[in-house]
Amino acid sequence: MEVAILSISVIASLASLIFIPKNKILESHFTFLFAQLPTWILGLSAVELGLLEYPIRELSKVNRTSFIFEFLILPIICIFFNTYYPFNGSKKLRLGYYAIFCSALTVFEVILEKYTMVITYIKWHWYWTWISVCIILWLVRKVTLWFFRST
Amino acid sequence: MNKESIITILITAATALALIFFIPKKRIKEAFLAFLFAQLISWPSGLLQVLFGLREFPVKFFPKATEAGILLNFLLYPALFTIFQIHFPNDKNTQYKLSYSVFFIVCMTLFDAFAAYTNLVVYKSWSWFRSIILFSISFFAARRYVIWFFKKLLYSNYKV
User: Fold this and answer.
1) Fewer Cβ close by (within 10 Å): the C or N end of chain B?
2) Residues 6+ apart with CB under 8 A from B15
3) Distances in Å between the alpha carbon of A148 and those of A35, A111, A131?
4) Phi, psi at residue B43, to the nearest 5°?
5) What residue in A sits closest to B60 (Cα-Cα)?
6) Tens-place pLDDT, residues B92-150
7) Got the DSSP string for B117-131?
8) Nearest residue on chain A to B34, judged by CA atoms?
């Protein structure tokens, strides 16, 4: 079942890229490339410090983090976050937007943690996921804005 | 401090300094993109190299988390590509460009061989010839990407 979950997530995340409007392609490229930096470092650190682990994963012999999640899924989520970010919305709307993304990811991860062997919390808590996702989404957005700002 | 830690610190410091000194401020965005894309190629390539028993990376920042050391594949080589890309002689003729590329790749291969000597990387089923091929392909692909990206940027509404 875990293998099915991993495969479906890869296919689903790649397929979801059709929903990116064409005029945001360059931003998406940059977001994807940059997102890998913090997610990868955080992911490696978390496993290194024994905070969580991914018992069933791809490339299992050479890598103990989830390559798919860090390298593919989270960056793609960042792309969607940036593409549909409500620039002109009220502060409440923007905070709500953040909250929805962080909560959805956290809930999804907790479900995976409880019912599958894709990920296991050792010394980790769900709110750390919430906080780290929030920080990553924020950071990636800020850096993408910086990159595309006219100088 | 053992030999490995010293080398790790030296390489990290050298990478940081090289990036600071060799990247002119007005091209920082191009450099940033080059760096990120080089990481995209280099890191999975490193993982695959370990997976297929081609090379090993004994010195690691994250020994428990991954077998493929991030030092070389995630930091140093992308940084070297960034410098390659930024200082690429676009205005000179083809022969000059070719010489520049060959020179850079040969230097990197030499460094890689040196790294093998200092145990930063262990050649299992590898040779300097493969290093040359790998660097050439990665550099070429990454260069194409950065050029494409900035050309597209020029024709769009963004100003970078």
Assistant:
1) N
2) B75, B76, B79
3) 15, 36, 26
4) -70, -55
5) A48
6) 888 888 898 999 999 888 888 888 887 778 888 888 888 889 889 999 999 999 999 98
7) HTTSSEESS--HHHH
8) A33
